[in-house]
Design goal:
By secondary structure, this protein is an alpha/beta fold. It contains 14 helices and 9 strands.
Length: 291
Protein backbone atom coordinates (compact mmCIF):
# COMPACT_ATOMS: atom_id res chain seq x y z
CA UNK A 1 0.00 0.00 0.00
CA UNK A 2 1.26 3.44 -0.93
CA UNK A 3 2.51 5.37 2.07
CA UNK A 4 1.39 8.96 2.73
CA UNK A 5 3.47 11.92 1.63
CA UNK A 6 5.07 13.55 4.67
CA UNK A 7 6.18 17.16 4.79
CA UNK A 8 8.84 18.11 7.31
CA UNK A 9 9.57 21.71 8.20
CA UNK A 10 12.87 22.14 10.04
CA UNK A 11 15.81 20.14 8.69
CA UNK A 12 18.39 20.77 11.39
CA UNK A 13 20.43 18.27 13.37
CA UNK A 14 17.30 16.33 14.32
CA UNK A 15 14.98 17.01 11.40
CA UNK A 16 17.41 15.99 8.67
CA UNK A 17 18.07 12.43 9.90
CA UNK A 18 14.36 12.08 10.65
CA UNK A 19 13.58 12.97 7.02
CA UNK A 20 16.10 10.36 5.93
CA UNK A 21 14.41 7.71 8.05
CA UNK A 22 11.01 8.59 6.61
CA UNK A 23 12.45 8.08 3.13
CA UNK A 24 14.00 4.77 4.17
CA UNK A 25 10.58 3.65 5.42
CA UNK A 26 9.06 4.37 2.01
CA UNK A 27 7.38 7.72 2.63
CA UNK A 28 7.69 10.37 -0.07
CA UNK A 29 9.06 13.44 1.73
CA UNK A 30 8.72 17.17 1.13
CA UNK A 31 11.44 19.08 2.98
CA UNK A 32 11.56 22.76 3.92
CA UNK A 33 13.99 24.75 6.04
CA UNK A 34 14.71 28.42 6.70
CA UNK A 35 18.16 27.72 5.20
CA UNK A 36 17.62 26.65 1.57
CA UNK A 37 20.84 24.61 1.56
CA UNK A 38 19.45 22.40 4.31
CA UNK A 39 16.39 21.63 2.22
CA UNK A 40 18.70 20.45 -0.57
CA UNK A 41 20.74 18.13 1.67
CA UNK A 42 18.66 15.09 0.66
CA UNK A 43 18.30 16.10 -2.99
CA UNK A 44 18.82 13.12 -5.26
CA UNK A 45 17.40 10.59 -2.84
CA UNK A 46 14.45 8.71 -4.26
CA UNK A 47 11.16 10.02 -2.97
CA UNK A 48 12.52 13.36 -1.75
CA UNK A 49 11.61 16.82 -2.99
CA UNK A 50 12.63 20.17 -1.56
CA UNK A 51 9.56 22.35 -1.04
CA UNK A 52 9.90 25.84 -2.45
CA UNK A 53 7.60 27.38 0.16
CA UNK A 54 4.95 26.56 2.75
CA UNK A 55 2.23 26.40 0.10
CA UNK A 56 3.96 23.32 -1.36
CA UNK A 57 3.12 21.46 1.86
CA UNK A 58 -0.46 21.20 0.58
CA UNK A 59 0.70 18.09 -1.30
CA UNK A 60 1.43 16.25 1.96
CA UNK A 61 -1.03 14.17 3.95
CA UNK A 62 0.95 14.76 7.15
CA UNK A 63 3.20 17.73 7.98
CA UNK A 64 5.83 17.50 10.71
CA UNK A 65 7.11 20.62 12.47
CA UNK A 66 10.61 20.19 13.94
CA UNK A 67 11.31 23.74 15.08
CA UNK A 68 13.18 25.34 18.01
CA UNK A 69 10.28 26.75 20.02
CA UNK A 70 6.62 27.78 20.17
CA UNK A 71 7.29 31.27 18.85
CA UNK A 72 8.56 29.82 15.57
CA UNK A 73 5.82 27.16 15.45
CA UNK A 74 3.14 29.83 15.86
CA UNK A 75 4.79 32.06 13.27
CA UNK A 76 4.93 29.25 10.70
CA UNK A 77 1.36 28.11 11.36
CA UNK A 78 -0.42 31.45 11.56
CA UNK A 79 1.73 34.38 10.39
CA UNK A 80 3.47 32.65 7.49
CA UNK A 81 0.25 30.84 6.57
CA UNK A 82 0.93 27.11 6.81
CA UNK A 83 -2.44 26.35 8.41
CA UNK A 84 -4.29 28.30 5.73
CA UNK A 85 -2.36 26.50 2.96
CA UNK A 86 -3.21 22.95 4.08
CA UNK A 87 -6.30 21.13 2.78
CA UNK A 88 -8.94 20.04 5.27
CA UNK A 89 -8.04 16.75 6.91
CA UNK A 90 -4.27 17.22 6.77
CA UNK A 91 -2.50 15.93 9.88
CA UNK A 92 -0.13 18.39 11.57
CA UNK A 93 2.44 16.79 13.89
CA UNK A 94 4.37 19.20 16.11
CA UNK A 95 7.58 17.42 17.13
CA UNK A 96 9.22 20.61 18.38
CA UNK A 97 9.90 21.27 22.06
CA UNK A 98 6.89 23.54 22.34
CA UNK A 99 5.04 25.11 25.25
CA UNK A 100 2.19 22.75 26.25
CA UNK A 101 -0.31 25.54 26.92
CA UNK A 102 0.33 27.13 23.55
CA UNK A 103 0.16 23.70 21.92
CA UNK A 104 -3.31 23.18 23.38
CA UNK A 105 -4.42 26.50 21.84
CA UNK A 106 -2.94 25.54 18.47
CA UNK A 107 -4.75 22.19 18.58
CA UNK A 108 -8.09 23.95 19.08
CA UNK A 109 -7.43 26.45 16.29
CA UNK A 110 -6.31 23.75 13.87
CA UNK A 111 -9.37 21.66 14.67
CA UNK A 112 -11.57 24.67 13.90
CA UNK A 113 -9.74 24.96 10.58
CA UNK A 114 -10.55 21.34 9.73
CA UNK A 115 -7.03 20.04 10.39
CA UNK A 116 -5.97 17.15 12.64
CA UNK A 117 -3.23 17.67 15.21
CA UNK A 118 -0.84 15.63 17.35
CA UNK A 119 2.02 16.92 19.48
CA UNK A 120 4.85 14.39 19.39
CA UNK A 121 8.10 15.69 20.89
CA UNK A 122 11.07 13.35 21.09
CA UNK A 123 13.88 12.28 23.38
CA UNK A 124 17.11 10.56 22.44
CA UNK A 125 19.26 13.19 20.78
CA UNK A 126 20.95 13.23 17.41
CA UNK A 127 22.39 9.71 17.70
CA UNK A 128 19.01 8.06 18.18
CA UNK A 129 17.44 10.34 15.57
CA UNK A 130 19.93 8.94 13.05
CA UNK A 131 19.21 5.40 14.18
CA UNK A 132 15.44 5.85 14.08
CA UNK A 133 15.27 4.90 17.77
CA UNK A 134 13.77 8.00 19.35
CA UNK A 135 11.32 7.97 22.23
CA UNK A 136 8.20 9.82 21.09
CA UNK A 137 5.56 11.25 23.44
CA UNK A 138 2.22 11.77 21.72
CA UNK A 139 -0.62 14.07 22.73
CA UNK A 140 -3.95 14.30 20.95
CA UNK A 141 -7.25 12.50 20.31
CA UNK A 142 -7.20 8.77 19.63
CA UNK A 143 -8.06 9.07 15.94
CA UNK A 144 -5.34 11.62 15.19
CA UNK A 145 -2.76 9.60 17.14
CA UNK A 146 -3.77 6.48 15.21
CA UNK A 147 -3.09 8.34 11.95
CA UNK A 148 0.25 9.67 13.23
CA UNK A 149 1.55 6.39 14.60
CA UNK A 150 2.56 4.72 11.27
CA UNK A 151 4.53 7.85 10.34
CA UNK A 152 6.18 8.12 13.75
CA UNK A 153 7.13 4.45 13.78
CA UNK A 154 9.70 5.31 11.10
CA UNK A 155 11.36 7.66 13.59
CA UNK A 156 11.21 5.95 16.96
CA UNK A 157 11.02 2.65 18.76
CA UNK A 158 9.14 3.80 21.86
CA UNK A 159 5.86 5.61 21.14
CA UNK A 160 3.67 6.54 24.10
CA UNK A 161 0.23 8.17 23.84
CA UNK A 162 0.37 10.39 26.92
CA UNK A 163 -3.06 12.05 26.76
CA UNK A 164 -4.88 14.92 25.09
CA UNK A 165 -3.41 17.76 23.04
CA UNK A 166 -0.42 19.33 24.77
CA UNK A 167 0.27 16.28 26.93
CA UNK A 168 3.23 15.23 24.83
CA UNK A 169 4.85 18.63 25.15
CA UNK A 170 4.09 18.74 28.87
CA UNK A 171 5.78 15.41 29.59
CA UNK A 172 8.71 16.31 27.30
CA UNK A 173 9.36 19.50 29.27
CA UNK A 174 9.16 17.59 32.55
CA UNK A 175 11.46 14.89 31.18
CA UNK A 176 14.04 17.49 30.18
CA UNK A 177 13.80 19.01 33.65
CA UNK A 178 14.68 15.62 35.11
CA UNK A 179 17.49 15.22 32.55
CA UNK A 180 18.93 18.69 33.17
CA UNK A 181 18.81 18.39 36.95
CA UNK A 182 20.48 14.97 36.72
CA UNK A 183 23.23 16.31 34.49
CA UNK A 184 23.82 19.21 36.86
CA UNK A 185 24.00 16.86 39.85
CA UNK A 186 26.50 14.63 38.03
CA UNK A 187 28.63 17.66 37.11
CA UNK A 188 28.75 18.87 40.70
CA UNK A 189 29.49 15.37 42.02
CA UNK A 190 32.29 14.88 39.46
CA UNK A 191 33.85 18.21 40.40
CA UNK A 192 33.90 17.24 44.08
CA UNK A 193 35.36 13.81 43.32
CA UNK A 194 38.14 15.32 41.23
CA UNK A 195 38.95 17.92 43.89
CA UNK A 196 39.39 15.04 46.34
CA UNK A 197 41.77 13.31 43.92
CA UNK A 198 39.48 10.65 42.50
CA UNK A 199 39.94 9.91 38.81
CA UNK A 200 36.75 11.19 37.10
CA UNK A 201 36.61 8.12 34.85
CA UNK A 202 36.68 5.89 37.92
CA UNK A 203 34.04 8.05 39.61
CA UNK A 204 31.73 7.68 36.63
CA UNK A 205 32.37 3.93 36.53
CA UNK A 206 31.15 3.74 40.12
CA UNK A 207 28.10 5.90 39.39
CA UNK A 208 27.15 3.63 36.50
CA UNK A 209 27.41 0.55 38.71
CA UNK A 210 25.43 2.16 41.52
CA UNK A 211 22.20 3.97 42.29
CA UNK A 212 23.56 7.26 40.91
CA UNK A 213 23.39 5.96 37.33
CA UNK A 214 21.36 8.15 34.96
CA UNK A 215 21.33 9.18 31.30
CA UNK A 216 24.19 11.63 31.88
CA UNK A 217 26.52 9.06 33.43
CA UNK A 218 25.69 6.53 30.74
CA UNK A 219 25.54 8.69 27.62
CA UNK A 220 27.27 12.01 28.25
CA UNK A 221 30.09 11.94 30.82
CA UNK A 222 32.63 9.88 28.89
CA UNK A 223 31.39 10.74 25.41
CA UNK A 224 31.17 14.54 25.64
CA UNK A 225 32.31 15.82 29.04
CA UNK A 226 35.50 14.00 30.00
CA UNK A 227 36.47 13.80 26.32
CA UNK A 228 36.27 17.59 26.17
CA UNK A 229 34.32 17.52 22.90
CA UNK A 230 31.09 18.96 24.33
CA UNK A 231 29.34 17.99 21.10
CA UNK A 232 26.13 16.14 21.96
CA UNK A 233 24.18 18.16 19.39
CA UNK A 234 21.79 19.79 21.86
CA UNK A 235 22.42 23.41 22.78
CA UNK A 236 22.61 24.70 26.33
CA UNK A 237 20.22 27.50 25.34
CA UNK A 238 17.61 24.95 24.28
CA UNK A 239 17.97 23.06 27.55
CA UNK A 240 17.53 26.32 29.46
CA UNK A 241 14.43 27.05 27.37
CA UNK A 242 12.98 23.60 28.10
CA UNK A 243 13.67 24.07 31.80
CA UNK A 244 11.82 27.38 31.77
CA UNK A 245 8.92 25.69 29.99
CA UNK A 246 8.82 22.97 32.65
CA UNK A 247 9.00 25.51 35.47
CA UNK A 248 6.20 27.59 33.93
CA UNK A 249 4.05 24.50 33.48
CA UNK A 250 4.63 23.38 37.08
CA UNK A 251 3.72 26.86 38.30
CA UNK A 252 0.50 26.73 36.27
CA UNK A 253 -0.28 23.38 37.87
CA UNK A 254 0.38 24.96 41.30
CA UNK A 255 2.77 22.20 42.29
CA UNK A 256 6.08 22.67 44.19
CA UNK A 257 8.83 24.37 42.19
CA UNK A 258 11.61 25.05 44.72
CA UNK A 259 14.16 22.67 43.19
CA UNK A 260 13.11 23.46 39.62
CA UNK A 261 13.53 27.20 40.28
CA UNK A 262 17.03 26.68 41.64
CA UNK A 263 17.92 24.48 38.65
CA UNK A 264 16.66 27.08 36.17
CA UNK A 265 18.70 29.82 37.87
CA UNK A 266 21.90 27.80 37.57
CA UNK A 267 21.32 26.97 33.91
CA UNK A 268 20.55 30.61 33.15
CA UNK A 269 23.79 31.68 34.80
CA UNK A 270 25.71 29.00 32.90
CA UNK A 271 24.30 30.24 29.61
CA UNK A 272 25.29 33.81 30.45
CA UNK A 273 28.81 32.72 31.46
CA UNK A 274 29.65 30.35 28.60
CA UNK A 275 30.21 31.17 24.90
CA UNK A 276 27.16 31.53 22.67
CA UNK A 277 25.86 28.32 21.08
CA UNK A 278 27.55 26.14 23.73
CA UNK A 279 26.45 22.51 23.96
CA UNK A 280 24.36 21.66 27.00
CA UNK A 281 27.10 19.31 28.27
CA UNK A 282 29.31 22.37 28.86
CA UNK A 283 27.39 22.75 32.14
CA UNK A 284 30.22 20.48 33.38
CA UNK A 285 32.84 23.05 32.36
CA UNK A 286 30.80 25.77 34.05
CA UNK A 287 30.69 23.78 37.30
CA UNK A 288 34.40 22.94 37.12
CA UNK A 289 35.21 26.63 36.80
CA UNK A 290 33.32 27.38 39.98
CA UNK A 291 29.85 28.21 38.69
Amino acid sequence: MKKPVVGIIGLGQMGLPMAGNLLAAGHPVLGLDALPAQAQALAGQEGYRAAGDLAAMAAAQAVILMLPNSDIVDDVLWNQGLAAALPAGTLVIDMSSSNPTRTHVNAERLEQAGLAFVDAPVSGGVKRAREGKLAIMMGGPDDAVARARPVLEALGTTLVHVGGAGSGHAIKALNNYISASGLLAVSEAMAAAQRFGIDPHVANQVFNASSGKNSATEQKVEQFMLSGTYASGFALALMRKDLETALGFMAQMRTPTAFASCCVDIWRDAEASLPARSDHTTIYRYVQEGG
